Amino acid sequence: MITGRRITAVLGGLALLGALGFLVKGNIGEGLVYYLTPAEVLAKGVDAEGQAIRLGGLVQPGSVVWKAEELDLRFVVADETGTIPVIAKSAPPQMFREGMGVVVEGRMVDGVFHSSSVIVKHSNEYQPPADGHTAPAEAYKTLMKNGQD
Amino acid sequence: MLRLIGFAAVAAAFAIAIFGIVAAVVAVKRRDAGLMQSARAAVYTNFVLMSVSNLAMITALLTHDFSIDYVAQVGSRATPAYITVISLWSALEGSILFWGWVLSAYTAGAIWFARQRAGALGAYATATMLFVGGFFYLLLLGPASPWGLVSPVPLDGPGPNPLLQNHWLMGVHPPLLYLGYVGFTVPFGFAMGALLSGQLDDTWVRLSRKWTLAAWAFLSLAIVAGMWWSYDVLGWGGYWAWDPVENASFMPWLTATAFLHSVMVEERRGMLRAWNMSLVIATFLLTILGTTITRSGILSSVHAFAEGPIGLFFISFMAITLLGSLMLLAGRAGELRGEARLDRMASRETVFLFNNLILTAFTFTVLLGTLFPLVAEAARGVKVTVGAPYFNSMTIPLCVALLFLVGVGPALPWKGVEARELKSRFLVPVIGLLVATALALLAGVRGGWGLAAFGFAGFALVTNVREYVTATLARRRAAGSGFLGALTGVVRANPRRYGGFLAHIGLVLIAIGIAASSIFRLDREVTLRGGESVAIHDYVVRFDQLRAEQEPHKVVVYAQLTAFTADGKELGRMYPALNYYEMRGGEPITTPAVRSRLDEDLYINLLAFEQNGANATLHVIIEPLVAWIWIGTGVVAFGALISLVGGRGRRPAPIRVPSRPAQPGSRPRPVEVS
Questions:
Q1: Does residue B84 surpass a pLDDT of 50?
Q2: Least confident residue range of A57-66, B180-189, B267-276, B486-495
Q3: Do A1 and B341 touch (CB under 8 A)?
Q4: Is residue B418 classed as helix, strand or coil in its secondary structure?
Q5: Which of these, A123, B375, B553, B673, is most buried using a 10 Å CB contact count?
Q6: What is the ipTM of this complex?
Q7: pTM for the structure as a whole
Q8: What is B621-648 written as a DSSP string?
């Protein structure tokens, strides 16, 4: 005889067991992405290879090479103690500048970080435009004239 | 002035909520009808007060009263009026204020409709809902107060987060989400009312049924509106990323969906009563968890907790609610014992049990994946996120199993059928399964899960559509009316049943859209000079020129493209754009150009460009059948609407007298006993 209450207990238990079993099988570790700094990646050495990583640091000034025709973006991410070369097969984000904070997601292959996404780090909070920043209206004036046809 | 009105209204609402709670509880103890009336008056008054407070904030936003903290935070003189009004929910404090308003409205509505027939249960439900309301009013008075004084008064503000002001859906998605989230307070209130008063029959279910269904429908719409916004604004061509914020809205939907099904088992068979209570409690807690996740910043880091007390408030409230409701539930466990038992495996109630099992496992899976980073950071000190691969590999089998059940449930009657009957019931759906699988194979689907998804989608579609067709044909024969008349008659006779089947059909359409657009997605990034073209799939896209326009609060840079078919027929212009919000600075917001058709979407995003307009880097994406996700959602919502307002129909009669199904193949007919 299966009573309602027992069904409740059985359902709850089975659901929990099922989910846990699933977890072991699916191995949550496979899907993990680690947040690391360049120094931490270097410290891990070979262990960092192949692991999904979100690498955070600054774009080293003078390191950026962007070939638009080939969609090939190369730069170096640095923190106080380490540098990691990055290759991204995608366009740089609009606000991407040298010396700026970035988070790149991808994997280390033979000491080079192959990135699938590059995100410029900026907080959600309002910040007044920094010095030396050109207002968009100024920067794209030529394009606006372009639109007058 | 507005500051004072807004603040005073919330303060008064808090005091009145406390009074109402005391009045309701004392009214039960003393059997004092007058006092109970006062408690209800407190509920209605709170709705008025919260309306005043919210309208005061909207007025302050529209009149740019930058002396008010919240207005200074999200307002801007250059922002259009529509965006200014919806800024009400664009940041933490305003969204809690809006939450309080919606909650007071739900509470007032639920208590008003229950006033005649609820007794002690209603009194405790009133107290519970006022308790929840009181928590939000307290937040508004303390850690999430939008009414702080800014001095000196700024001349202008930054405007709301650019992501939120870039699409009309932002005026739609958050209110829908709140209408969904907050609505689950009503069934929670009535469930607590039942536990506290000891009136454990299905009164609480009947009092909350329509509210639960409405909240569920709003939440469904909200989730998909969020997906659509993600698709139309974020520019990556996807609609679901297993982001914690998305998961937060999805988890209560899963448990609420489980409840909508299992509650029918309670109504018909008197089973699963404690389980249903648990689902309602879980759903409510998950909505609070969802707000905690989205609003406290807890998932970006455990340490975000330290930055403000709001997280602690939420966690304490969740802990109190969880412990309180579980203790109540445990105390009544003996009285919640079920009445009936399962007769056969092949029955509607068995399918509902499996439905609940899978939906619960689904919830656990998503919950673990969402909270795992917290555990990892607390236990091992590492910062991690759980990527989409985990969620996909875990949930795709669960989704396929659910599709299978959607196809089985409607074909089986309550109390079940004999094994020999199964063949006649499932012959046609199985043909649907085979045809759909064959079509998927022909279309090029090769993966096992993909084939299963399309196959069971066909299976489920056939089962649910057949319910409509057979009933309509039978009615037409009996009544001699036209097909449409018969169809309306069928739905009117049992809106709950046919609304449910329609929701199933919508769900299957969504599943087909998701499966097709993920399996057959094609994409390409390319940099083009003026006049150059790129060919992808059946399209050729030409980059004509780059332009920019100054709007009051932003600068828009857009590429003018012309799309052609592969054989050179012109399809029209497309204008993917980047929006620069000057007041906010930072990354521009994308506006992808989407050419949406029933068969496939051509989706183009502007990634980068030369400042002189010489070239543009584009992301061109082809996604088949995406439109069916949005269409299917409309169908789901229409199904829910039919269930809600499609006439009175008959009340589902509980089945207590043991009975055999009359004839093999005949429609199941519950034995009417009341």
A1: yes
A2: B267-276
A3: yes
A4: coil
A5: B553
A6: 0.78
A7: 0.90
A8: EEEETTHHHHHHHHHHHHHHHHHHHS--
